[in-house]
């Protein structure tokens, strides 16, 4: 299961957008709300409610088949969160020597609250230890 926050709306919205991005990479232009439901392991009504809000906020649109598409703003948010998730997971796995599962889980928590300055520092550090 991928990340899914219950603490705050900002985090859960970011997780929904990130999930749409990930699913679109696997199947471009063919992401259905049920795919998001299955990927995150949450209820269909929760996803329906979130998609309505994300559409209202201009972060997603739906094509004629009801497939979910990220707008420019939605893609920007999703790519930012996804990058943070990947980099932080790598940091935890390499530097803290924890399992991939633990690194993933902890990255899900940190990706929403880490400062840009700290994130850039982590990226620079990881570049030096390749």
Structural summary, described in words:
This protein is mostly helical and 130 residues long. 67% of the residues lie in helices and 5% in strands. It contains 6 helices and 2 strands. The chain has helices at residues 9-26, 33-40, 44-56, 72-95, 100-110, 116-128, and strands at 60-62, 68-70. The chain has a two-stranded antiparallel sheet. A hairpin with a 5-residue loop joins strand 1 and strand 2. Helix 1 crosses helix 2, helix 4 (72-95) crosses helix 5 and helix 4 (72-95) packs across helix 6. It is elongated, with a radius of gyration of 15 Å. The two termini are 28 Å apart. The mean pLDDT is 91.
Keywords summarizing the entry:
mainly alpha; two-stranded antiparallel sheet; 130 residues; single chain; 6 helices
What is the mean pLDDT?
Answer: 91
Report, as a whole number of angstroms, the end-to-end distance.
Answer: 28 Å
- Total number of helices: 6
Overall form = elongated
| Helicity range | 55-70%
How is the biggest beta sheet arranged? 2 strands, antiparallel
SSE succession:
HHHEEHHH
Structure summary, number of beta strands: 2
Q: How much of the residues is beta strand, in percent?
A: under 5%
Give the strand order, joined by hyphens, for the main sheet: 1-2
| Low-confidence segments | none
Helix/strand-derived category reads mainly alpha
């Amino acid at each position: 299961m991928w990340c899914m926050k219950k603490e705050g709306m900002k985090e859960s919205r970011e997780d929904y957008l990130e999930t749409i991005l990930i699913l679109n990479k696997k199947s471009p232009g063919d992401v259905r709300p049920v795919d998001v439901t299955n990927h995150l392991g949450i209820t269909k009504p929760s996803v329906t409610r979130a998609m309505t809000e994300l559409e209202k906020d201009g972060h997603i649109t739906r094509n004629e088949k009801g497939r979910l598409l990220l707008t420019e703003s939605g893609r920007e948010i999703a790519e930012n969160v996804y990058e943070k998730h990947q980099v932080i997971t790598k940091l935890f796995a390499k530097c803290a020597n924890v399992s991939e599962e633990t690194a993933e889980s902890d990255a899900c928590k940190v990706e929403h609250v880490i400062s840009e300055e700290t994130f850039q520092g982590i990226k620079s550090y990881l570049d030096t230890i390749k």
